[in-house]
Specification:
Helix content is 34%, strand content 25%. The protein contains six helices and twelve strands.
């Protein structure tokens, strides 16, 4: 029997006995890629099905508790009753947008609210209540008005530190031009721009015309405010005047560059 040929010998002259891998043709390579893609697709489908089951079918991520923050006048029970959080439901299925809309519609004292999912088992209600800057007398009750002019609640007792609106427009060109609603809005603007420390001193905001706004303070003092223009500047000037002459009976800041004090 003939030995290995020269082509079959290595550089050392020995026979090359290294095993060569079997040749895979183009058809085999296509089949291997197809098999790999099928396996990847099956794995992705199984993973998706598992995630869906965890979110919707399992008991792992269901609503078990509700937390409420930010309430002052409203109670936690009032807010949660209107929110109607579906305890036991899959957390992912809770319609937070619908819940926010329901709270804003049924509880006008709420200025804004965020409904958030607190994984794995909670729903959080973050409430911001409207703050009254003026009160409007309505019979024996009071309507609370916030800084945007929104009448949001009627209460039996006047909250402390919130001035009354005394709208007594004069029959003048100002009333014909601006109307009662505009004059009320001017009063709201003035009240909303007052610093908290100064607002506590004010018993009422009186409006007779567009530029006829005055403030009734504690201890029988008054402030001639003028129009609502330059409100922050007027507030700073008034605070300085009250500090410099605390016994004065009247302060005039209608022209904040030339204020006046009388009745000391």
């Amino acid at each position: 029997m003939a030995g290995p040929t020269t082509a079959q010998r290595g550089a050392t002259g020995r026979a090359d006995t290294t095993a060569r891998p079997p040749h895979i043709g183009p058809e085999g390579r296509r089949l291997s890629r197809r098999t790999l893609l099928i396996l990847i697709g099956v794995a992705a489908a199984l993973l998706t099905a598992f995630v869906i089951w965890v979110l919707y079918g399992s008991s792992w991520l269901r609503v078990e508790r509700v937390t409420t923050a930010g309430t002052d006048v409203l109670t936690r029970e009032e807010v949660e009753a209107v929110a109607a959080v579906p305890l036991g439901a899959p957390l992912i299925s809770v319609d937070t947008g619908a819940m926010e809309g329901r709270l804003l519609q049924k509880l006008p004292r709420i200025d804004s609210v965020d409904v958030v999912r607190s994984w794995p088992h909670g729903i959080g209600l973050k409430v911001t209540e409207r703050k009254p800057v003026l009160l409007v007398e309505k019979g024996a009750k009071f309507v609370e008005v916030d800084g945007t002019g929104t009448h949001f609640a009627t209460v039996d007792r006047a909250p402390k530190g919130v001035p009354l609106l005394e709208l007594k427009p004069e029959r003048s060109a100002s009333l014909r031009r601006f109307g009662g609603d505009r004059l009320s809005a001017e009063a709201v603007q003035v009240a909303g721009e007052l610093p908290k420390g100064l607002a506590k001193e004010i018993k009422a905001v009186r409006v007779t015309s567009y530029d006829g706004i005055s403030l009734r303070l504690t201890r029988g003092r008054t402030v001639i405010w003028g129009s609502s223009e330059d409100g922050p500047v007027k507030a700073r000037v008034l605070a300085a005047l009250m500090k410099a002459d605390p016994k004065a009976g009247q302060f005039d800041v209608s022209a904040p560059s030339a204020p006046a004090v009388s009745g000391s």
